């Protein structure tokens, strides 16, 4: 019996490990991504069948995370070849020859040595990029994270489910906590990319348990799930309990508690009102103040409440949204409010903060180091849909449910701030940054994904080529262009760069701008669109350029050797930084029956001082929402508004591009 038990146990473990190994092999197959739509190979059809058999009908959220393959290390030769191809349209003849010489010298000498060390890391690390990317791109930065790193998400464009601020806060908080419950119970569907499982584990787990701590470097701190949220209103901080004896409060009960905060007449304590500016200014200053004044006593206890809270809520005293006599201008002010607010009424170190405005509009501000935008977008889509379609409101705009009047009042947080000098200094730094950034948000309604797909063109490639044309018209040339792509087909995958400015895209833009014949422009466009799609596929499947070069650079720094090639590559500015916000849960939004419930997506600040930040979201079949940012301090990137303009978002160029491509269907 003992032998039978041991044998059966070993057999069971062997079968489990064999199935997991087979699934990992299947998930390492990526040729399907390079096949044209409607032309699926027999190999891919067999692969899909086997994948469905092994993955099960209803996998849980984290069921197959350990079966995802590790991110492969590209060869030096391939990476350098793709890099030189990407910079060729940006460099003059002598400049390109010089860069080619640097690349060849690097490949023949230092490159292979660094590659060997990188492959050694890839053998034992879950992902050879992610930990270094998190540390060196986010955590070691000592500049302000407000605007420079944090990003924002917006409410519905046309509707506000209720104008009652406390009620909107009640439903929003409830929806977020219901999402957390689903994550903890693994009730959410695993994120899939065309039926292929993708990585969600680390970032989904970090949503509620992570905060940024400013020390010698920034540190990501992880806590247990908490049963309260931190609330800021009119210069005062509160702890709001959202559970009682293990029971999640009803939306109406949370509304009642929020209303108590709104009705509280007490003034801010000395130094309390603008305390949040410490998280908006320079990180070194915040680190020093934290060590000096927040390591013990009442300040430490209150800071712990904020940092351990599930998330941060700001009850804003302003009205926001597309409203009034100047809807376009108000939409821009709404974006700036979410991006930086007053520089002291947000807690920028929290994994994410919710802002609920006086007129019921809401939005969020998210810290970037712990996760990428698709994770937060997934959370926000669920929140908006649950708020509007599941929880709902009464006819007079209040939350549904009963109220337990015996609930304890929200707790004021206490502070002992001996001097406001450092708070004022941090606020001055943050205010200067906030005043410099310019934001423009607008929905493009002339056409959308539906019409683009009829041309058999990728909507993302169409928009990226349009942005190349817009930049060329704006600046008279081309620039290094960053488009964020996900590497979630691999374990702990984060992002990779798609270099959207290619030889093919430049040929198309020059031809169109030069007035060449229509058929020739159409051919160049399709060639450029296909090239962009191929670059995107390469990035998603681990054959990108920039993360590999970044890791080689980190290895060189560890070894104490200098590479002129790597140093120059990593110092090149991204003057056009772009990102698409994907709609991942379309089933939650019935846009045919509720077309007014259109998401605005979100945006971010410019990466380069003399560049643009462009975010866009493709909504339904007939709309594309754009968010563009730049800095006032650069006269060349001013975002003009009005009918006659020649800036980057001269969006009639989309129509021009379309007319130059669209022939008989």
TrEMBL record:
The keyword Calcium does not apply. It comes from Gadus morhua (Atlantic cod). The active site is at residue 368. Belongs to the carnitine/choline acetyltransferase family. GO terms for cellular component: mitochondrial outer membrane. Pfam families: Carn_acyltransf. InterPro entries: Carn_acyl_trans (IPR000542), CAT-like_dom_sf (IPR023213), Cho/carn_acyl_trans (IPR039551), Cho/carn_acyl_trans_2 (IPR042231). Keywords: Acyltransferase, Transferase. This is Carnitine palmitoyltransferase 1A2b.
């Amino acid at each position: 019996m003992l032998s039978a038990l041991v044998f059966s146990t070993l057999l069971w473990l062997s079968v489990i490990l064999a199935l997991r190994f087979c699934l990992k092999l299947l998930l390492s197959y990526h040729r399907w991504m390079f096949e044209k739509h409607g032309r699926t190979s027999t190999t891919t059809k067999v692969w899909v069948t086997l994948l469905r058999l092994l993955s099960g009908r209803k996998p849980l959220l984290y069921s197959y995370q350990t079966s995802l393959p590790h991110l492969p290390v590209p060869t030096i030769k391939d990476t350098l070849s793709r890099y030189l191809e990407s910079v060729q349209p940006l460099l003059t003849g002598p400049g390109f020859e010089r860069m080619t010489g640097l690349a060849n010298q690097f490949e023949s000498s230092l490159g292979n040595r660094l590659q060997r060390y990188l492959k050694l890391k890839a053998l034992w690390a879950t992902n050879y990029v992610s930990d270094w990317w998190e540390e060196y791109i986010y955590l070691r930065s000592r500049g302000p994270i407000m605007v420079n790193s944090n990003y924002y998400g917006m409410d519905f464009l046309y509707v506000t489910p209720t104008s009652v601020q406390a009620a909107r806060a009640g439903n929003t908080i409830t929806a977020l906590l219901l999402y957390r419950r689903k994550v903890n119970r693994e009730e959410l569907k695993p994120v899939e990319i065309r039926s292929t499982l993708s990585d969600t584990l680390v970032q989904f787990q970090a949503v509620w348990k992570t905060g940024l701590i400013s020390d010698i470097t920034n540190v990501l701190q992880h806590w247990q799930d908490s049963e309260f949220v931190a609330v800021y209103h009119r210069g005062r901080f509160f702890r709001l309990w959202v559970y009682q004896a293990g029971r999640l409060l009803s939306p109406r009960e949370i509304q009642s508690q929020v209303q108590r905060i709104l009705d509280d007449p007490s003034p801010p304590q000395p130094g309390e009102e603008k305390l949040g500016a410490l998280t908006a200014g320079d990180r070194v200053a915040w680190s020093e103040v934290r060590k000096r004044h927040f390591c013990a006593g009442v300040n430490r206890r209150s800071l712990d409440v904020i940092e351990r809270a599930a998330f941060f809520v700001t009850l804003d005293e302003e009205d926001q949204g597309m409203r009034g006599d100047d809807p376009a201008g108000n939409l821009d002010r709404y974006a700036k409010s979410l991006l930086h607010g007053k520089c002291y009424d947000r807690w920028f170190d929290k994994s994410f903060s919710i802002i609920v405005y006086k007129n019921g509009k809401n939005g969020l501000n998210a810290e970037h180091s712990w996760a990428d935008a698709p994770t937060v977008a997934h959370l926000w889509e669920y929140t908006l849909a649950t708020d509007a379609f599941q929880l709902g409101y009464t006819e007079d705009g209040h939350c549904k449910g009963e109220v337990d009047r015996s609930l304890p009042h929200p707790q004021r947080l206490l502070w002992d701030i001996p001097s406001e000098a450092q708070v004022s200094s941090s606020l001055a730094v943050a205010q200067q940054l906030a005043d410099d950034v310019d934001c423009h948000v607008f929905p493009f309604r002339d056409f959308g994904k539906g019409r683009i797909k009829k041309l058999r063109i990728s909507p993302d490639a169409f928009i990226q080529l349009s942005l190349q044309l817009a930049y060329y018209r704006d600046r008279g040339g081309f620039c290094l262009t960053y488009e964020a792509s996900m590497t979630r087909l691999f374990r702990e995958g984060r992002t990779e760069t798609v270099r959207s400015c290619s030889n093919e895209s430049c040929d198309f833009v020059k031809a169109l701008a030069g007035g060449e014949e229509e058929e020739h422009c159409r051919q160049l466009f399709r060639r450029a669109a296909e090239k962009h799609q191929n670059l995107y596929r390469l990035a998603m499947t681990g054959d990108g350029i920039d993360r590999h070069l970044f890791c080689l650079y980190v290895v060189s720094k560890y070894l104490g050797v200098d590479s002129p090639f790597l140093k120059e590559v990593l110092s090149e500015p991204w003057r056009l930084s772009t990102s698409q916000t994907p709609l991942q849960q379309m089933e939650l939004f019935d846009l045919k029956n509720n077309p007014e419930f259109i998401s605005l997506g979100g945006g971010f600040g410019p990466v380069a001082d003399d560049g643009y930040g462009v975010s866009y979201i493709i909504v339904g079949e007939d709309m594309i929402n754009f968010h563009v940012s730049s800095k006032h301090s650069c006269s060349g990137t001013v975002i003009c508004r009005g009918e006659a303009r020649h800036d980057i978002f001269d969006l009639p160029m989309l129509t021009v591009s379309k007319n130059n491509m669209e022939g008989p269907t």
